[in-house]
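ping. complex inputs:
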Amino acid sequence: MADFDVIVIGAGPGGYVCAIRAAQLKLKVACVEKDKTLGGTCLNVGCIPSKALLDSSEHFAFAREKIAQHGVILKGIELDLPAMMKRKDGVVRSLTAGIAGLFKKNGVAHLSGQGSIKGAGKVAVKASDGSTKTYTATNIVIATGSEPSRIPIAPFDGKRILSSTEALTLSEVPAKLLVVGGGAIGLEMGSVWSRLGAKVTVVEFLDRIAAAFDKQASLELQKILAKQGLELKLATKVLSAKNTGQSVVVEMESASGKEKAEADYVLVSVGRRPFTDGLGLEDVGIAKDEAGRVEVNERFQTAVKGIYAIGDAIRGPMLAHKAEDEGVAVAEILAGQHGHVNYDVIPNVIYTWPELAAVGLTEEECKTKGLNIKTGTFPFMANGRAKALGDTEGFVKIIADARTDRVLGAHIVGPRASDLIAEIAAVMEFGGSAEDIARTCHGHPTLPEAVKEAALAVDKRQIHM
Amino acid sequence: MKHDVKAPAVGESITEVRIAGWKKRSGEAVKPGEVLIEIESDKATVEVAADSPGVLTIQRPAGEMVKIGEVLGFIDDAASATVAGAASAAAKGNGAPVSPAVRKMTSEQGIDPASIRGTGKGGRVTKGDVIDRAESGAKSAAQATTAPASSVSSAPSPAAPPLSRAGGATYAGDPRDKRVPMTLLRQRIAERLVQAQRTAAILTTFNECDMGAVMELRAKHKETFKAKHGVGLGFMSFFTRAVVEALKAVPTVNAMIDGKDAIYRDYFDIGVAVGTERGLVVPVLRDAGAMGFPEIEKGILALAEKAKTGKLSMQDLSGGTFTISNGGTYGSLLSTPILNPPQSGILGMHKIQDRPMAVNGAVLVRPMMYLALSYDHRMIDGKEAVTFLVKVKEGIEDPAKLGFTV
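pong. complex structure:
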């Protein structure tokens, strides 16, 4: 008999959720993690610490720039960066320890060490002291996540050319920070250090930031971030980045020619790639695609029977919540249930302030697909609660099928957009229409009223505009 | 006092039945022995009668699947009737919560949302589904009796979706169509026929037989037979006897495949296909090898009676080593029957028709019947199949070989 029903390799949001769900379903589960703490990239060096810094830095910016509008006068506002970092570390610590507690509560065995697959049903775990122990399992789930993509023209050196991991732990506020890549990570970390006083330049190869998002929404965010003082160099290609010891010299090229810039630090945030090194996939015959992703079928099965893969290691958006849902689906499949992930309704958020949140199709995607659509937008400027908060930038945009009124996508730039998008995701999951949102009573005065008004606007009958 | 009305046991191995329809209404007074409800399994339909007087309360609507022994309603002998008897009105399968836009549109258009095939999560009706319905201008019989708005907006018990929606129905529909749920029997027939076509290598061989000798024997002994045995002398007994003798001569036709094994039987349980109003059933005549003509006729008559009244038990329908199907009853001249799995052979009988035949160099008009044997070629070789069918033919053309006595 095997030691475990399931061994999950990796304790990030995909892996630990999979392990807990499988344990809930009475399977005997172990979860292998090479890092000292559980939670993977998300909890340790990703979503959570970045949000802690985003919230802290926004408080600082709010205190300096906005609180006076509310009639509150603060004097001598100072930054205590070590305290801010300590608080961030505390948030991370409490959450990662929380997962250890959840493992204990659910009876998930935590195997500490580097996991590798030694064939179907066999996982070797190499502990930090160098000893290796092999465990057997009926099923193996690969949940090893991803790591920051490297580019040869600007290789990470951990000192001045940084990945997101180091950008979360700088011990000083740089005078100048140059960010390569205008996606979620670049804009979030750029915002953090900009708010704390750095002069931040974001260099983006495409002609707009957040290019994967709805154009109207990303252009709105672009306008707002530029106003906040972020310098955005669009349609610009980075040719090289050299650490001179005291600074980094970056060579760039755009339609207007080549130019050089100097910065204290360069953050390279051009995406992430699957992390499957040292897993031994080649030895057991598991194929990877050209992007290094483990190939799986719709039931998350790899080419080898009994070996599954989820999260950033496989196809689909590299998002913690996508990995979590896949973890649940695999656990349920292994328990003989029907596990499923609806890839058409996965929210995606950039946690700048205001935030950018999206779910479903963009207007551009609808056009490419040849869908006949109608859209409704509603600005936060006309929302009572947003006005009271003093956060009136941005809008809610809802896209619906022109004939059936079914909600196809939604895009929000605005305060707490990340929270507002959840309502629309729920409606979409049930195949709901814009009218369904419009006819659902929303509390007043609240930010979600802007969602309701945008739904009304789909039918050109918004009340407050 | 309240007396529960429960789903009755309808046969071994059946755990779930469908409520085909209530014969009484909620609030109606019932007397002992009165039929309350019709229950349908994939084998048969049974009726449940009241066992005590009182007023009926229906708790599970028609169309729902229920477990054996489950309470479907109750009779309260202390209550007084609130509705008059007779009339129709089965409990309306309605009340699943619907989204606000759907609620509004269906109320305005007088459509029962339960009558719309939902494409949303878990089969829920979306606004698009209502628009589709409205655009197709459909007014099916179900919603001709407009649902009042109140019954649409109050949403107490989540009723089961109509069966027609289950099983991955995809056909968008034409307003002129009439959509009705398939009976369990029909669904089971469909499944088994497709299963047979998919698993077996079905091939059909044909022959014909001269019915003259059998017809003469019948004409001659009909009355004596009836007087002596209390049952008519039909063709089925001749064919059953002929089949049994042919199966004895060619045992592979009576065998079946199970995985990688062949299973041979020296007993002869003959399935006799019987058409009923609700569909085809194949009750089994057990140990036909040991039966004479009278026993066969009596056995078949009893099974046919049961089939027509929906009283066949699981026992009557299971097993069978070979099947005889008589399409001739309805006038078929030639057909290719489909196997009744896991059996390996099925004989098709057809209409007796006078045809000119060459007999000993002269053209004579003879009462002829085409015979068809469909067989599983995985188990049975062509030679065996043909030999079997020739044996049947010889038995029919020379009934003395079948040991016919009055």
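The longest helix of chain A spans residues 81-106.
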